[in-house]
Write the structure tokens for this entry.
Amino acid sequence: MDATPCSRVPDRDIFTSTDPDDIAAAKAVCSTCPFTKACLKAALELGEVGVWGGTTKAQRTRLNHTPRQPGRPRKPITHGTRQGYFQHRNRGEDACIECKRAASAHSKRMRASKRQAVAS
């Protein structure tokens, strides 16, 4: 005869049900069990569905989640260029004076070329 509280539950379907009341009842049974940690460990290893070790599948998924590895390192800023100006902006930084000057010079050249095109 099993010594676990879940083995003595007449309706074992509560452990696999999606009904919130059944889930709460299953968790209540798990809260009285001395094997909760072992049960949870087994469910994490095997990917079980339903309530195991007092947790739902969604809760175990969050427990098993490993944080995403950081992406590749950022490219160094190309100072003194228009691209460098936008790299500063994309990082939420104030652009350095060299990059501001490069972006300003580019804008001036673009405005001058537009004026020249309109005058022709």
About this structure: The chain has two domains: 5-64, 82-119. The chain has five helices and no strands.
